[in-house]
Design goal:
The structure is a homodimer of 320-residue chains.
Chain A lengths: L5 H9 L2 E6 L5 H16 L3 E5 L24 E8 L15 E9 L10 E4 L5 H11 L6 H14 L10 H13 L4 H9 L3 H13 L1 E2 L5 E6 L1 H8 L6 H8 L6 E9 L2 E8 L6 H6 L3 E2 L3 E7 L2 H19 L1
Parallel strand pairs in A: 1-2, 1-3, 3-4, 4-5, 7-8
Antiparallel strand pairs in A: 6-7, 8-9, 9-11, 10-11
InterPro entries (chains A, B): DDH_dom (IPR001667), DHH_sf (IPR038763), DHHA1_dom (IPR003156), Oligoribo/pAp-PDE_c-di-AMP_PDE (IPR051319)
Organism (chains A, B): Acetobacterium bakii
Protein name (chains A, B): Recombinase RecJ
Chain lengths: 320, 320
């Protein structure tokens, strides 16, 4: 791992007031990184404010530092720190951004455009890995809440150490977190295992609807309007549900259809490399990436199945 | 972590022929530990045989060394190595055990009774962690299959680094495995994410039946005979399914009822510490431990619900 550059350490050491921003709809890595860095800077007697998009996922609310989020902002800070944000637009920010001498960007996204006055961007499993290294470089003592926050960032962004963004450094850093707090089993269950009753029932309904399209490794799941009303209430159905199809042996492409209004579906598509499904999303006015995309669909679901099958077959022939 | 004692290293270095045994119904840690040690010893030009209980779980079959399992045994070995077995009875062994100068036990179970001539027992996340340390002490080069085998052992026995048996050493060792092979994402998905279509449908049926007993944090799931016939074909329903209840927020006790014959249920019970459910299993002629037990039940399911509720209430009052 690269050494944290001296100018980043100086920027944090030599200034007094910090505003921490993270991306919209913050996840475990955004919240964990913010809290670890914020609490660390407070230990150095810095003044730290957080401006964070709400609501925060229920499973993250256990971190006590969250009570310090979104208190009144100053008009002026020494430094605005942007964590886990690949672009400025992606950051959640107040309508009028306070003045600052400098913006400091710390991030692990490949797509980061280095839009800060100072930038430290490295492709790691999680931004929390970089924050850990910064905290160590600042000689800050990591307390158990900071350890929990860092573990939360790393564990959520790496899918409990299962994704391909995990490196030797990821495990090396987590090994050090175990020297601060010896057991993360309860936290791991909270982050990965537990679902509330409704989320669990929604998962069951999705599996119940799971269908493998004839002669193609394509999974389709449909959550009808009533099911979403009964168990969801909202359309924020987690990636977990979209991934059920992908976790079925042999499946390469999954479509999850959520009926937002009668006959109108919000479609989430997932594909395994090297298959690319973003074009069908663009065709229907949606967006996304090669392996994960979404769009709105009205019409005959059998036609959608046929389209997915065509995409698979066209690319299969290329990839063979 | 304790240094591997010199006499263990000498035993492996100074002898020539080895028979490797592991426990009955071998899991990822048993298979992974056996292959890593076996291939390691072969690198030192030792002769190695494996005698392993079949069938091996489908998800483990990717390891090429499995083709060397259960070839003809010699009448005599220098050393019989027992891996991941807490007692000799638990080991899978041929009807007539070949002669040997010495038995060497390597294990991570707290309950290990040190029944070998030589024993190295340490409470770690997985036996594979100890095997890794032994291989390093023997100066053996770890190839990618051995790295996969060790990763399989550690990842499966720690629930993808989520259980309370994980330590700083666990992550330190895995960090070193990433220096041998840089990506375990595909393997992780194979070990943890994937279910075949029928297993997935069985999971869905279990969630569909999930019920939280009124006024108590007790989950009950029932898989009826037809569902088991449709999707299971066997009663080997994985722990995953039994754990669905336990992974529902707030639940302390889960009962999974599998209808083996009309009106006759195989019941699997799980409890969270400090609750203890093994007595109800004993009462019905079953067995198990404090937090996981099983028995056969015929009769009125409402009575079973009532009994579970009573157990919860009696212990709740003790634990408050």
């Amino acid at each position: 791992m690269k050494k944290i550059p001296e100018r980043i350490i100086e920027c944090l050491n030599d200034n007094q007031s910090f505003l921490i921003l993270v991306h919209q709809k913050p996840d475990g890595d955004a919240i964990g990184s913010a809290i670890a860095l914020g609490k660390g800077l407070k230990q150095l007697n810095k003044s730290v404010d957080y401006y964070i998009d709400l609501p925060i996922e229920e499973k993250l609310l256990f971190l006590p530092e969250i009570k310090c989020f979104n208190q009144s902002l100053k008009e002026k800070y020494d430094i605005i720190v942007l964590l886990d944000c690949s672009t400025m637009e992606f950051a959640f920010q107040p309508e009028v951004l306070p003045e600052a001498k400098l913006t400091l960007v710390i991030d692990h996204h490949k797509s980061n455009v280095c839009y800060g006055d100072l930038n430290f961007v490295e492709i790691t499993g999680a931004t929390a890995e970089i924050v850990f290294r910064i905290i160590k470089a600042l000689n800050i003592k990591i307390d158990t809440e900071m350890a929990d926050a860092l573990f939360t960032g790393i564990s959520t962004d790496t899918g409990s150490f299962q994704f391909s963004n995990v490196t030797a450094d990821t495990h090396k850093i987590v090994s050090e977190l175990y020297l601060i707090k010896s057991n993360y089993a309860h936290l791991s269950r909270l982050l990965h295992g537990e679902k509330n009753y409704n989320q669990m029932k929604m998962t069951g309904a999705a599996i119940h609807s799971l269908e493998i399209i004839k002669d193609a490794p394509i999974a389709m799941m449909i959550l009808d309007h009533q099911t979403i009303k009964d168990f969801g209430g909202t359309l924020n159905i987690s990636d977990d549900v979209a991934n059920i199809g992908q976790n079925t042996s042999g499946v390469i492409i999954t479509a999850l259809l959520k009926e937002v209004n009668t006959g109108e579906y919000r479609v989430s598509i997932r594909a395994k490399a090297p298959f690319d499904i973003h074009e069908i999303a663009l065709k229907y006015g949606g967006g996304g990436h090669e392996r994960a995309a979404g769009f709105t669909f009205k019409g005959d679901i059998n036609l959608l199945k046929k389209e997915l099958q065509d995409i698979y077959e066209a690319q299969r022939d290329t990839h063979v």
